[in-house]
Design a protein that fits this description.
mainly alpha, flat
Length: 92
C-alpha cells in the first residue's frame, strides 16, 4: 500500500513538472507541437488501416476451424505412469 502511494506521488510530480514545461512554451509553439503530434497520430492510424486492409484483402486468407490436437496421448500416459510410481512409494 505504501509503495503504491509513493509511486503515485512520483508520477504526479512528473506530470506536474511536464505540465510546467508545457506551460512555459509559447502558444505558437504549443499549437505547432499539437499539430505535429496529431499529424503523427493520423499518419500512424492510416498506416495501420492500410496494413489491415491489405492483409485481409488477400484471397489466400482462409479461416479454418479444426479440432485442437495440443495434448498427445503419450504425454497423458507418461504422466499417469509417473503418478503411479510416486504414489506407490508413499507410505499410507
Amino acid at each position: 500500500m505504501w509503495a503504491l502511494k509513493k509511486l503515485r506521488d512520483k508520477i504526479e510530480g512528473y506530470v506536474l513538472k511536464v505540465e510546467g514545461h508545457w506551460k512555459a512554451l509559447s502558444v505558437e509553439k504549443q499549437r505547432l507541437l499539437t499539430k505535429v503530434f496529431f499529424g503523427g497520430y493520423c499518419l500512424l492510424t492510416v498506416i495501420v488501416l492500410i496494413h489491415v486492409i491489405v492483409s485481409t484483402g488477400h484471397k489466400s486468407n482462409i479461416i479454418s476451424i479444426d479440432h485442437i490436437n495440443g495434448i498427445s496421448r503419450k504425454t497423458v500416459v507418461k504422466v499417469s505412469e509417473q503418478n503411479d510410481l510416486i504414489e506407490s512409494t508413499i507410505k499410507k
